[in-house]
Amino acid sequence: MTLWGTLQSQIVRFHRSPLLWFHITSALILPLLCGFYFAVSPWNPLMGTDAYVQTLGALMPLAICIVIAFDIEIERQAGELTTLLAAPSRALSMLGKLFAYALLGLATLAACYAIFIGILSGYGRDIPSLSSLTLSCVVLWLGSLLLYPFALWSALKLGRNVTIAIGAVLSAIAILSLGGLAHGLVSRQLTAAQSPTIVYALPMAWPTRMGSLALEHGINAHVSLQPLLTHTGIALASVLILTAILCVWIGSYEDRKREF
């Protein structure tokens, strides 16, 4: 049993799962709606792009919790989680799941960025530089990585409904952390760069702030990237620590949670 083998197995199972369509739908609906809106509205398209990225980041906790909660529940009802609990190495099987979730999330985010920017470009609107958009997508994803092991633990320990409810609360906190959705758009402020330092301590707000900070640096070169570097280091260290703890925990886990 290898990590690569468990990753391949998880990807194959995704092909037969409705969760793949959830990602495809997510990669189409939001960027299409927001893209066409900001393409024809009088709002500054650069600030509109910043508001869109903040929305993507704020929705990550809810989206990740929905995906993992339903995936675990599907496996629980189909085979009592045998692909995880009956594997020769539970830790490797779990890591394969986490890698598959994260890669699918990255692909979805990339599509969300590409479709939105493609629409703005098609209408001849101003867009941030390609480098700032790429950096924004990557760091938004990095900022969300901690949510994957957390959501997996929650789905296994607390069940589907509680996990989704937690995701909704975390997304609401992320939205409020930057003053609310479209706050920067309405106030014409680069809200991620001006947000209080308490946001550093809110992991659920990392995706929206990190993605927005990278973009705001592209909009205004005076926005410092130092907070982004700090966030990235904290995010990567946190996900490694939490994943290691989860690898130890899964070895003694017994599944007693089933929802209908």
Q: Gap between N and C termini, in Å?
A: 32 Å
Helix content: over 70%
Mean pLDDT: 87
Overall structural class, as computed from helix and strand content, comes to mainly alpha
User: Helix and strand string, N-terminal first?
Assistant: HHHHHHHHHHHH
Tell how many strands the DSSP assignment holds.
0
The 3D shape can be described as globular
- Strand content is under 5%
What's the number of structural domains?
1
What kind of sheet is the major sheet?
none
Low-confidence stretches: none
- Gyration radius, in Å: 19 Å
Q: What's the tally of helices?
A: 12
Describe this structure in words.
By secondary structure, the protein is an all-alpha fold. The chain has one domain. It contains 12 helices and no strands. Helix 2 runs antiparallel to helix 3 (45-79) and helix 3 runs antiparallel to helix 8 (160-177). The longest helix has 35 residues, at 45-79. The mean pLDDT is 87.
Helix-strand layout with pairing:
Elements: H1 3-15, H2 18-40, H3 45-79, H4 82-85, H5 90-122, H6 130-144, H7 147-157, H8 160-177, H9 183-187, H10 191-194, H11 206-219, H12 226-250
Put the structure in a nutshell.
This protein has 260 residues and is mainly alpha-helical. The chain has helices at 3-15, 18-40, 45-79, 82-85, 90-122, 130-144, 147-157, 160-177, 183-187, 191-194, 206-219, 226-250.
Please tag this protein with its features.
globular; mainly alpha; about 260 residues; transmembrane; ABC-transptr_permeasesu; transmembrane helix
